[in-house]
Specification:
By secondary structure, the chain is an alpha/beta fold. It has one domain (3-220, 238-261, 299-308): Alpha-Beta Barrel (TIM Barrel). 46% of the residues lie in helices and 15% in strands. The chain has helices spanning 12-21, 33-45, 56-62, 64-73, 92-101, 115-131, 164-171, 198-207, 223-231, 244-251, 262-278, 285-308; strands spanning 25-29, 50-55, 82-89, 105-108, 135-140, 145-146, 152-153, 175-178, 213-215, 255-260. Strands 1-2-3-4-5-8-9-10 form an 8-stranded parallel beta barrel, surrounded by 9 helices. It starts with 11 loop residues before the first helix and ends in a 6-residue tail after the last helix.
Length: 314
């Protein structure tokens, strides 16, 4: 299937508009019907372009047929500017599989490989993707932390600005994920006031003016969600995210895609923990899952309106 059959778009136009308008497109990860409905609903209700992001492990969890049936059932119109994106595809085969399923954008994450091998694999994916009019993201540098069983690292390696021109020119990728201090998971910062390396981002922009840049591991880790979880039997301690102020600043510096995953997980979990604690007689999944949809929706809507600044851009 081709992504146009599902009403999806690639990211070329949305990134060009974001660069010109100094805002970002939120790439929100989903992993089931509930998170899919919440994210899509928030984007539609705010008239915002959006990237629906699926990791390799989430795709395996949902299965090819169920995932694409949900997308088809959403009756997406190209005017809505919605992309379906493979997040952290680690192999050529994973990216090609997603493209052939109907994804409109893929990320080839070969950042754990030596520079030359990263270029070779990213260029190979880009060649296949562009033949199908699919946009491609790659990554230089590495983020510490854990997103899932496929995406994790104990090391942090900032993107070297001196490498970006060669990498982009030799790979022909359409956007570049950079490492400037964000990280995967709920434990991104040692303190709430820790700053991202905007000096590195400035140098990257000097080498790559007007090129779409991406921030992974950029969830805010809302403290009210952490508090709800901990007050209802959870144990998430000393979790700090990226401040909305820093993320908004990044959108003025060619960052036109910001990935959000942990915040949605926190919202989903907080709603369910609170519901089952306050209503111990509740056992109908539709009731507590409905509350989870609402909380993920509200967090996504907040991100679109106050961090991405992408509301009413259609």
């Amino acid at each position: 299937m081709q992504y146009k059959d599902f009403g999806l778009v690639n990211t070329y136009e949305m990134f060009a508009n974001a660069l010109q308008g100094h805002y970002a497109i939120g790439a929100f990860n989903f992993y089931n019907m509930e998170t899919f409905a919440a994210i899509l609903g928030a984007a539609r209700h705010t008239s915002s372009p959006v990237i629906l992001a699926v990791s390799e492990s989430a795709l395996k969890y949902m299965s090819d047929d169920i995932l694409m049936s949900m997308v088809r059932g959403a009756k997406i119109n190209p005017r809505e500017q919605i992309a379906l994106h493979l997040d952290h595809g680690h192999t050529y085969e994973a990216c090609i599989h997603a493209i052939d399923l109907g994804f409109s954008s893929v990320m080839i994450d070969a950042s754990n490989l030596p520079f030359k091998e990263n270029i070779e694999l990213s260029a190979r994916v880009a060649e296949y993707a562009h033949a199908h009019n699919v946009s491609v993201e790659a990554e230089l540098g590495s983020l510490r932390g854990r997103e899932d069983e496929n995406t994790y690292s104990d090391d942090e390696l900032y993107t070297n600005p001196d490498d970006v021109v060669e990498f982009v020119s030799r790979t022909n990728v359409d956007s570049l994920a950079v490492a400037i201090g964000t990280s995967h998971g709920a434990y991104k910062m040692k303190t709430e006031n820790q700053e991202l390396r905007f000096d590195i981002l400035t140098e990257i922009i000097r080498h790559l003016p007007e090129f779409p840049l991406v921030l992974h591991g950029a969830s805010c880790i809302p403290q009210h969600l952490v508090q709800i979880i901990n007050e209802n039997g959870g144990n998430i301690q000393n979790a700090h995210g990226i401040s909305p102020k820093q993320l908004r600043h990044a959108t003025t510096m060619n960052v036109c895609k910001i990935n959000v995953d942990s915040d949605s997980r926190l919202a989903f979990t907080a709603a369910i923990r609170q519901a089952l604690t306050e209503h111990p007689d509740m056992f109908n999944p539709r009731e507590y899952l409905g509350l989870a949809i609402k909380m993920v929706y509200e967090n996504t809507k907040y991100s679109i309106e106050n961090i991405m600044l992408s509301a009413n851009r259609l």
